[in-house]
Amino acid sequence: MEILLQKEFIFHPEDDRTNRIVPFETTRAYDHLEFVCEYSPKTISDPELVSREVQKGIEKSGWSGRKLFPTDMDECKVLMNFVTFSLDYEGEYVGCAHRHDPEQVIVISEHGSSRGFFARPAAKGKWRIVLNVQAAIPEHELTYHLTVIGCDKPAYTYRPFEMHCHTLHSDGRFTVHDLAHAVKDYGYAGFALTDHNTESGQVELTPKLAAETVPAIRGIEWTTFFGHMLVLGCKHYVDWRFALPEDIDTYTAQIREAGGIAGIAHPFNIGAPMCAGCRWDFQVKNWEEITYIEIWSQEDPMVRTKNIMAIEWWTKLLNEGHHIACTAGRDWHFYDSEPVILTATYLGLPDGKVTEENALDALRAGRTYVTLGPTMEIEVRQAGKAYGLGETLPAGECEVCVDVGETERREHWERWGIKVREIGLTGPSGTQKFPYRGELFRGRATGDRWLRVELYGDKNGQYGQLLAVSSPVYFA
Fold first, then answer.
1. Helix, strand or coil, per DSSP, at residue 288
2. Are strands 344-350 and 79-80 parallel, antiparallel or unpaired?
3. Residue by residue, what is the 3-state secondary structure of 315-356?
4. What DSSP assignment string belongs to 159-218?
5. Per DSSP, what are the bridge partners of residue 21?
6. How far is residue 350's CA from residue 364's CA, in Å, rounded to a whole number?
7. Comparing C-alpha atoms, which of 5, 363, 298, 9 is closest to residue 159?
């Protein structure tokens, strides 16, 4: 990101119904431009001033002597400043933000601009901003802040994965071939093959199958007496059978030495006698060897107590200073007999290229988020620098930018009435929620240890439901 223009304007009452022209030039092309517009005050409610100005307006409008209805006066209780933003490029009109919100972010991109603007490249050339002062309240100054930011394409593109699958090589009903095709049919870009305690199915993950469907991450679900662990990417077999609660660190170190990573699966499943070993009872001391926690298990995860407990536990570990990513996994064993609410784990991959190694690197780096459908592009900005998920920045004030998408894989989740209404910024002190208005979100936060992004909204006719959760950024 690059700040191209940063200005403050003071408008006085005499600037009412005038235009302020702000030219600027881009010396190179960008992925998109962001125009951050903020002004204050928006409203003035001083009764004497309002009454005086309303009376002037009535006289100018020829309403003097007319009977005024209560509904007429309801519109005249406060005075509002109103400044709109319009834009040209090389003499061609691009569009206008005629909206009353005094804080707006306008995005211009060939892939899709903010509402009110045509999609067009953020190209090199001459641009012109016109600030239209529709109303400036008498007897008051109006302060307007304008920032123009040139943004390059993110280094990482997030792609959807199913991270927990079983086949006939353990207790699933899929063949490896059928699983790979099912994954593709559900719109995933990749999947993890995690049969219970066996790698035998991996020989069926051929280049031909990957070309027909999607790439796979080679893994195994350690199914022990004391918990289940998803072990991915090992170059050689690591024996799981004799792991005890007090010595799990020895085994996770062996996994790392074998080039693999370890993630905790469904840590709060009910254990014995319902499912012996399904609950996590290992006593981890070296959390650096645990790459991620499966905070969402099975379909429609937030109607399950075990997943609420998993998020609470993950949050506690983050508060203790551990760096741990999140994933979702269906624990997928067979074809669905009827439609279900799916989850997806999005992994941040270089240029979106799906390979096993890129996926493993994304997990190691904490470039992950989980969702019931809507996608997120997240960037945290501080002192002119941009940070992504999993990265560490200095403690202090920061700005969080979230671009929500509601089109990818939509056919797999729209039937559930899923709609984003709020964006949550969650850290050690709790969650702060902001309304989502359908455009690029920018919110300020104070960095303390960690910060993650969450989406809330409608699902199945219920409101305020958790729809997506990101892995954190961290603060030094």
1. helix
2. unpaired
3. HHHHHCCCCCEEEEECCECCCCCCCCCCCEEEEEEECCCCCH
4. EEEEEEE--TTTT-S--HHHHHHHHHHTT-SEEEE--BT--GGGGG--HHHHHHS--EEE
5. 130
6. 14
7. 363
Which pLDDT tens digit goes with each residue over 14-23?
A: 999 999 999 9
Largest CA distance in the chain: 94
Amino acid of residue 193: L
* Model pTM score: 0.91
State the Cα angle at 314 between 368 and 225, rounded to 5°: 105
What residues does 82 pair with on adjacent strands? 135
pLDDT tens sequence across 291-317: 999 999 999 999 999 999 999 999 999
Report d(CA 217, CA 232) in Å as an integer.
7
Cα separation, 383 vs 393, in Å, equals 10
Residue at token pair 């990818």: 408
Q: Are strands 190-193 and 156-165 parallel, antiparallel or unpaired?
A: parallel
**Tokens at 456, concatenated:** 């809330």
φ/ψ of 360, rounded to 5, equals -65, -40
Instruction: Tell me the C-alpha distance between 419 and 431, whole Å.
Output: 20
Paired tokens of 281 = 């009872």
CB 367 within 8 A of CB 156: yes
The pLDDT tens digits of the residues spanning 126-163 come to: 999 999 999 998 888 999 999 999 999 999 999 999 99
Q: In this structure, are residues 170 and 35 in contact, taking their beta carbons and an 8 Å threshold?
A: no
Is residue 419 within 8 A of residue 458, CB to CB? The reply is yes
At 75, the pLDDT band (50, 70, 90 cuts) reads: confident
CA angle 421, 427, 428 (to 5 degrees): 140
